[in-house]
Target: CoA transferase
Amino acid sequence: MSDSGIEPPLAGYVVVDLSSGIAGNYCTKLLADAGATVVKVEPPQGDPLRQWSASGAQIIDGTDGALFSFLACSKHSVVAEPGTDDGFVDALLAGADALVWSRGSGVVADPRFGPAAIRARHPHLTVTAITAFGLDGPWSDRAATEFTLQAWSGGIVGLGRGAPDRAPVYVGGQVGEYLAGAYASVATLASRLRGGAELIDLSMLETSILGLTYYPVSYYEMLGRPWRDARRLTVPGIARAKDGLVDIGCGTAQQWFDLCAMTGHVEWIDEESPLSITQQANEKADELYAWVADQTVDEIRDLATAFRIPNAPVANGANVEGLDHFVARRSFVVNPRDGFTQPGPPYRITPPMLAPLLPAPRLGEHTEHYRSRNWGHHPLAGDIPGRDSSSTAAGNAIPRGASAPPRREGLPFAGLRVIDMTTFWAGPSCTHLLAMLGADVVHVESTRHPDGTRLIAGIPVTEPQWWERSPIFSGLNTNKRDITLNLQSDTGRELLRKLIVTADVVVENFTPRVLESMGLTYDAVAAIKPDVVMVRMPGFGLDGPWRDNPAFAYVIEAAAGISWLTGYPDRNPFEPYSVGDPNAGVHACHAILVALEHRRRTGEGSMVEAAMVDAALSIAAEQVIEYSAYGALLERTGNRGPAAAPQNLYLSADIDEFGRLDSWVAIAVTTDAQWAALRDALGNPPWAMADELSRADGRRARHDLVDEQLGRWCAERSADQIVEALWRSGVPVAKVLQPHRQTHIDQLKARGFFEAVEHPVNPVTPHSTLPFRSSRGPDRIHTAPAPLLGQHNEQVLTELGLTADDIARLEADGVIGTAPAR
Model:
């Protein structure tokens, strides 16, 4: 039971975990948090994460790395010898509902336990396979790491991050692994809604594209220009104040005007300037940095908050736990086995229904129990010695109310009605997942305040229907319907209430005061529709001292610690400027699925608080974990990283499409065998033959030498030549792709990741789809283009019982419309 006495939504849902690495372990952690019984099958030496520490802390024999202890809370561990044929693992699979799989050692190295072979023997299962490029296609067996996947995705250069005088930099902290795990949890639970019995094939390259780039292909194809053509610092961005680092955002024209006023330079405001906001800020960089340097962090943040300018402290492993907002919200908890600090769940549900946090298992702790069972359909009948018998997740008898949804045809969310009151990126990315998987998503805008992504394409207002030409809006809103309602009017709010009566889910992502000022709290919405799932996605949460602060991705990333690990050690951190939004969206979608499962079992609605910063804290967890467990402060290291040596970007001989000597390749060597392969591909030069370089610690100690020599070798070759030479030898390597060239990747073509979408105003344009494919379909994801503003006013309002005359009066009164109000 949960702490409130409510049965966790996934109680009785049995998941076998045949994965290794962060992605699979994070996926099953999210499932275990919601009450699923997760049985982790490990080789005799254990999951490699048991011996992992990003800081290199020594893991004493008989103990586990702190990150593993975080990811494995509430799970079970069994050991299976690879190559044995006693039926143990197959018996586990026969009694499970789902399997999470990734490549690695142990049982999964046996061809009998590949995803397709398992599905053939156990057709009832949802098998979720997490791989670098997907199970099929020309790159399916190529070597990769998160670092090289970030390069292929375009995420390293996607939003112009970094400075032009140095190599671009990747987003630190293994965020791509967590993104893949979150998407895998959504795919697994979506499959459950239609009865499972399918193979889910998830590509980490595709999750990186969705998490680290901002619809660059659609942008380039629709507007004829890339989002960014050069690296430039975000100004002010992360800057050094008197007493530390602070992040100050300037993402809109109004925020730039307010920043000018806040710093005492109203004369900088030029509403007629032909320069973009970014260009204007860069012109004043010296004055802005000087102003920041003359204030304390608290002084700047108090002023910025008063001016409604996004801002945040720059968190790291040492200070994040003590920030006043996180203290007030109790954002961190104590690991139940090893006592270090870790983030709480990435979302909150009212009434509380998540499973209690239980200690991570020791290696093979439950092997004897599972081997001794005489199983029926579920193998978990009976208590497990030494575990809390009050919790299903600890092995208590499976409740009879936990029967799975029946198998049905059609899309997972068919029949689900979602009222989408979201804007910009985080909220729409959540509802877009639901729409692409079959939900009827009704996007609610206002002619006075259209979705913010309609306004950021740089289309002159003199262009016909300029508000319909945003590639970002187009990329985020296919398959949705759209209505406009003036929610400042009594009539508009009354129509919204009528719409809510028809809804299963309501999603909004305004600051808390916005809906509260309209009286649309959860209690008010539940009074209209008692079984509704209401999802609120504020940046910083519904309470705490920062709750009303405006939040964009960059300040969320700074506040959670993601920015701290991104950039060079001798410079201020760079804002990733990307992952904070889609990461919040996918975690909110996971939470919706958990809440819907609770409703399916009980008939009760609930409120999900999916704060952007809580989701970001979860994927930055390793920083506070390493600091509290080992006293180690993780630092940014440019393009080097803890999981590979060497790991870096190297300049090739190519001239890029902008006429610059600025074409890079990413190389990451994770094993000694890969180092030997790299050395052979280089022709075994004398410098590479030193014995110390044959070991990871030796390569790390002499990383400067390796970088210098690899840099010389790469500088004499094209990027294609480098990739061809190293990839055929099994070395993880990638071109640092310009993101608008994602459609050039053969693997994405083979998987159909981009689909051509027709639109009544815009040309036919490739749009990215879902990062996973299912053996049960759909074959096509985008079934309708992003809607025009108010396109479905008449259709939706007629469904609510309004007549043609009623609708005409609403338009005449300005309650609805199809163009932005002047």
Notes: The chain has a mean pLDDT of 94. The chain is about 35% helix and 15% strand. The radius of gyration is 26 Å.
